[in-house]
Design goal:
heterodimer; A: 119 residues; mainly beta; four-stranded antiparallel beta sheet; 0% helix; globular; B: mainly beta; 11 strands
């Protein structure tokens, strides 16, 4: 059973970079043909897909965040990461990492990490 | 981007009721649609994928239908554990987009 767990600072100052890591167990991020995504949820709101890194290392980002997002992977640690630059209060959200089970349907999710952007 | 419009935004229902939630896509997405259930403080849980395929382990009272632009999630007999918020997701094209959510509340 694949399990994902987000980790990283819960508080980031405005204009700085938000950095989160997703540690994966029960499966390798570099095999299997899966997409590894980041998704966020603003407090009390809906879900927003941020982007993915494919098992080959290729990436795709939502156009609305593309200029500020980098998703990378460390296959030696079986982790993938999110960097979001120049954050503002509007980036305050719960950030989830997730994996599809084919067809970009997210079947496996981390428990979520609340990141607050504030001074 | 494909916009996903969910309705209603909330519904009050009793245990045993049949509940129907709809999702409309701003353009055709074939059957590239999933439904999720989310409880407070928890990650979403996949219920239905490819519009009508039941995810393993999900009770059969959940069903999905539709194709093109109009989709439906039906809970045939609402159970206490089903009170939650439900989201649809279009997986036809990038960026992937979610519906705004439907909160199913106790009547």
């Amino acid at each position: 059973q694949v399990q994902l767990q987000e980790s990283g600072p819960g508080l980031v100052k405005p204009s700085q970079t938000l950095s989160l890591t997703c540690t994966v167990s029960g499966g390798s991020i570099s095999s299997g043909g899966y997409y590894w995504s980041w998704i966020r949820q603003h407090p009390g709101k809906g879900l927003e897909w941020i982007g993915y890194i494919y098992y080959t290392g290729s990436t795709y980002y939502s156009p609305s965040l593309k200029s500020r997002v980098i998703i990378s992977a460390d296959t030696s640690k079986n982790q993938f990461s999110l960097e979001l630059t120049s954050v503002t209060a509007a980036d305050t959200a719960v950030y989830y990492c997730a994996r599809d089970h084919g067809g970009h349907y997210f079947a496996y999710w981390g428990q979520g990490a609340l990141v607050t952007v504030s001074t | 981007d494909i916009q996903m419009t969910q309705s209603p935004s909330s519904v009050s229902a009793s245990v045993g009721d049949r509940v129907t939630i709809t999702c409309r896509a701003s353009q055709g997405i074939s059957n590239w649609l999933a439904w999720y259930q989310q409880k407070p403080g928890k990650a979403p849980k996949l219920l239905i994928y490819a519009a009508s395929s039941l995810q393993s382990g999900v009770p059969s009272r959940f069903s999905g239908s539709g194709s093109g632009t109009d989709f439906t999630l039906t809970i045939s007999s609402l159970q206490p554990e089903d009170f939650a918020t439900y989201f649809c997701l279009q997986a036809n094209s990038f960026p992937l987009t979610f519906g705004g959510g439907t909160k199913v509340e106790i009547k």
